[in-house]
Design goal:
Layout (H helix, E strand, L loop, with lengths): L15 H11 L3 H6 L1 E8 L6 E2 L1 H11 L4 E13 L2 E11 L4 E10 L5 E8 L3 H5 L9
Parallel strand pairs: 1-6
Antiparallel strand pairs: 1-2, 3-4, 4-5, 5-6
Length: 138
């Protein structure tokens, strides 16, 4: 059973950097999102090449994330490898035409900067191939 960490909108997570990431992403403040990354931080979007560096991440989000709302439901600290903390959060992303279950993995350095975010869609390939946009369904 998960619990809501006092003051956190993400159940079981009270990490300020992660809370700030989702707040800025959902408000479409992509420069603020990119500013949470380490200088050479990496965004691993599903089905695309890695996006490296703050400037490239902000640009990518301006192109690909408009109208998206990310809603993590649960999260946990996976490991503390060396000086990096790794988290995994699970929830969904609401896009203009559909909703999909998502898992996010984050790495945070000792300065609480994001070293990487890996975004995985939690759908089978068959489910994704059978997706019909809402406007095409009758």
């Amino acid at each position: 059973m998960t619990h809501l960490v006092q003051g956190s909108p993400i159940p079981t997570i009270d990490e300020p950097t992660l809370i700030a990431y989702f707040a800025a992403l959902n408000d479409e403040r992509y420069e603020d999102v990119a500013g949470l990354f380490a200088e050479e931080g990496v965004l691993y979007p599903p089905f695309e090449e890695p996006v490296i560096g703050r400037r490239a991440i902000a640009h990518y989000l301006h192109l690909e994330a408009v109208g998206m709302r990310a809603e993590p439901r649960t999260g946990e600290l996976l490991t503390t490898e060396g000086t990096e903390r790794r988290y995994r959060l699970v929830g969904n992303a609401q896009l203009p035409l559909f909703r999909v279950n998502v898992a996010w993995q984050f790495g945070l350095n000792p300065g609480n900067q994001i070293t990487f975010v890996k975004v995985d869609l939690l759908a089978t390939l068959e489910e994704l191939l059978n997706y019909q946009p809402l406007r095409q369904q009758r």
